[in-house]
Amino acid sequence: MGGFLTNLALHIIPGAMLGWLSAEVFLRNPLHRLNRLASILFALMALQFGASFLASFFPEADAAKLVNGLLIVPTCVLGFLMMLFVRQLGGQTGKPPASYLDIALVVPFVLIVLVVSQPNVYGAYAKYTVALNPEEGVRAGSIILAATVWLYASAVWLIGWKAARNAADSTGSQHVQAGLGIFAGAVVTLTAMVAGLSGYSAAHAHLIGLYAMLLFAFFIRRAILYYGLMPSVMEKYRVLFELSPFGVLLLDAGGSIREANPVVKLLLGLPPAELIGKPVSMFLDRGERLPLGGVGSAMMEVGMVDIAGVSRRMTVHLSEVTAEGERMYCVVLQDETGRKKAEEEIWYLAYHDALTGVGNRLYFQETISSLLQNGTEGALLLLDLDRFKAVNDRHGHQAGDALLREIALKLRECTPLSGMLFRLGGDEFAVVLPDVGGAWEPAATAENLLAGLTGHRGAISPDSPVTVSIGIAQWPAHGSDTTALLHAADIAMYKSKEQGRNRYSVYAQAFAGAGA
């Protein structure tokens, strides 16, 4: 029983490990030809361990057929694939092996033909007393195959090493790992041959040979996982990842940062190495969240805070991806702070008077139109600066502009918090008071405006020829559209002019009837 369990452990455990390695390497990057080839190699190695275990328990007649079909022929195929793998591996250094070496790739197929066509010489048959044929044919075939595989692999490795040893990146370390795999496999294979030739059990010698392949697989796995010899999906797009003009984060299913490109440092204030492992939620503004889980892709605008506490608006492109067999999220961050600021500046220039900084005619028209459509009540105060042209003529336009800025500043101070101030053009201003039902509030506002402009310490000095006339109209009583409301306020304003200026008048139907 103990012998059975030992035999089981020596075969099944390495076979299971190789099966797991096969799946791991394939899932790391299914599209890369080296990953696919390594996966096939590891799977065949696992099959060899399983077939060797079964052959030791089958009746000898059946075991011989099993050895031919699942050990000898697949071993030849495996030898060819190992040489092909090393050849493509060597090509990664940029210096392909010499073409005359490729003649060695034919050897495994020649041996397969010999095993199939002359099984009495090169195969395993029941007339022998052990499951594996110890006769000269099998031994010669095994020696030829092993020598061909490891000599070819060594020659290709040496050619690649000449190009890789002085490389500035990790190519040299990668190549060393592959070389260790070839060396270890060759040494253990040589040990198996010596054991077989010295009269040691052929089955045990074959098992030692299998462990040579296991060592080769171990070092190749190290080269893949720790030295990037065969890039993963992320490594394949590493250049795009690193050089992207946008910040790119790779999150795990729990929202922790697994990868970050250099641009993220400009956005979040931390270098990529210090971001790894931190939850992305710590950089989200209060109340913001990313819809992780069950989302294929999404685009949204969120507020994010860098490590210094500076808030930014970001457009986030969120995509669910599968990398190396794991569900992850790729987050592309585009800083919208500059764009938002530019949009705000464009909006400001479009809707504000360049000289005084108050709302312009366009802003006034859109505002009053919106208020009229809401169905609320309000008041419009129209202000006109009488004889302002005299200031420009006497003191120049610079003095006139300075006076306009001072008047706008004073009007802004005297306008209620709920009101809005606009310059309609030239020397004409307007104050809009939304949600005003009675007549007293517009009148009180007009008195404050007059006091701020013409009173003690007003914007207009007492010796200035400039005066102020204000007309007041309310909606919807005096007009239900912009044109009618402006017309009513204009009539009231001219009534103030007629009555001596520096005063205000509230629109009345009698004014219109008088043709004022």
From TrEMBL:
Which segment of the chain is annotated as a signal peptide? none
Please indicate which superkingdom the organism of origin belongs to: Bacteria
- InterPro entries membership: Biofilm_reg_signaling, GGDEF_dom, Nucleotide_cyclase, PAS, PAS-like_dom_sf, PAS_fold, Rev_trsase/Diguanyl_cyclase
Give the matching SMART domains: GGDEF, PAS
- Residue ranges constituting the GGDEF domain according to the UniProt record: 376-509
- Its transmembrane ranges are 6-27, 39-58, 64-86, 98-117, 137-159, 180-202, 208-229
Q: Which UniProt keywords apply?
A: Membrane, Transmembrane, Transmembrane helix
Q: Where is the PAS domain?
A: 233-278
Give the matching Pfam families: GGDEF (PF00990), PAS (PF00989)
PANTHER family for this protein = BIOFILM ARCHITECTURE MAINTENANCE PROTEIN MBAA, DIGUANYLATE CYCLASE DGCP
Q: Under which name does UniProt file this protein? A: Sensor domain-containing diguanylate cyclase
This chain's source organism reads Cohnella ginsengisoli
Phylogenetic classification of the source organism: Bacteria, Bacillati, Bacillota, Bacilli, Bacillales
